[in-house]
Amino acid sequence: MEQTNDLNRYQRQLILKGFGMEGQQKLRQAKVLVIGAGGLGCPIMQYLVAAGIGHIGLADNDTVSLSNLHRQILFGSDDIHAYKVDVVKRKMFSLNSDVNVRTWNERWTQEHCMQHFPNYDVIIDATDNFASRYLINDACVLLGKPLVFGAVSQFDGQVAVFNQLQEDGSRSVNYRDLFPVPPANGELLNCSEGGVLGVLPGTIGAMQATEVIKLITGLGKTLSNRLWNYNALSQDVFIMQLVSNPISHQNIPSSEEEFLSTDYEFLCSIPRIGIKEIDVLQWKENFLDHLFVDIREPHELPRLNSFCSSLSLEWMELPLSSLETNISCLNGRNVVFVCQAGMRSLMAADMLMKSSPGSRVFSLKGGVHMLAEKKLI
Amino acid sequence: MIEVMFFGQLTDSTGVSSVMVEEVANTDMLIDMMKMRYPSLASSKYMVAVNNTMVTENTIITPGSKVAFMPPFSGG
Question: How far apart are CA A89 and CA A92, in angstroms?
């Protein structure tokens, strides 16, 4: 009976050339771990569960929020405030109850990597921040696990297979070969700061699921040693051949002890010596006499003109992209910087502190998002 | 001529996704030229590929080449 059901359920892939019962059996025996249950993690889970992967681990410590729903389409309005992994697990059981799904509603740490990576055949990076991406990459190199990487930014996405075992016994390139050192938080915009087209993580997550199935079944040629780039606006695909970078291995912890003692959050943090973050209430009570500088780019909305006029603020717009060349106009001033989510304003504050050490410089925590949340704009 | 392509948020710095430049001998010289033209590139993180292959050190650029500037993406 079970076999008849399987023949039925997987019939469209069983009849594929090169797939057959053997391919299905490989999927059934496979164990894969997905880290991140957001825009990428949702479609990855759906396709891997539907395809009949035997065991899937899923980790995410986040709960569902309203601003997730435009792209994380496994979730509905009724799921707001629920742990993402709980909702995904329930929906995946309904999709295919033969698949064993184990979940963690915890932030993924070095200890989790050391304890659980050895139990899985493939690791999938579906996270949304550089600290997690470098943590997962380094653990995969250390423990010899293939990593299916995917990331999005605004209208662009990237997919690659890192650290895959090659015929000569060596491993394919990893993320550190591309970018040996992590960018600081705020150096690049995340989805919260820079936005993302809702359908884009669906496209990229589906590509990652494709690579996982190829890795397990041995079908086709994976994106090992290649970076697949996609732009949703032009529909252009650009594939880049990757090579190993001689300096990458200097940056990867070479032992479990070194890995466990690496502070990935710190590596991706901005130097904040002397920079104070103030929240919206502190700012309204004590800092309205400071020059208020909006360092967002001109296309970022909402603009703050009417809000600043209503408070009779002294304020200016000075996009971060041109701040460095114009920073002298702020020298000696006491300044509160604001951006969309409070990341880039920390960078701006750092730049002014260096240029004008005598200034009192602050960064508005949570940025324009927080002004909106407090219903001030 | 050489076609220089910018990806992801680098286009916020450059305002364009690609630009044609006169012959430049190597990638170090091209990177310097692009930083002069687009100052905020200087504080950006990216890797460089010549004719679709990533480079890790200064590399000769032959006429007609395509050079890509690719930043890391963090979103998911």
Answer: 5
Please identify among residues 109-168 of chain A the ones whose CB lies closer than 8 Å to any CB of chain B: 125-130, 133, 150-154, 156-158
Residues of B with CB under 8 A from a CB of A: 5, 7-9, 12-13, 17, 39-40, 42-45, 47, 49, 52-56, 68, 70-76
pLDDT at residue A188, rounded to an integer = 66
Whether residue A191 lies in the annotated active site: yes
A198 and A55 within one domain: yes
Active site residue A113: no
Q: How many domains does chain B have?
A: 1
- Regions of chain A short of the pLDDT cut 70: 1-2, 184-193, 269-274
Domain total for chain A? 2
ipTM of this model?
0.96
Per the structure, the complete domain to which residue B13 belongs is given by: 2-70
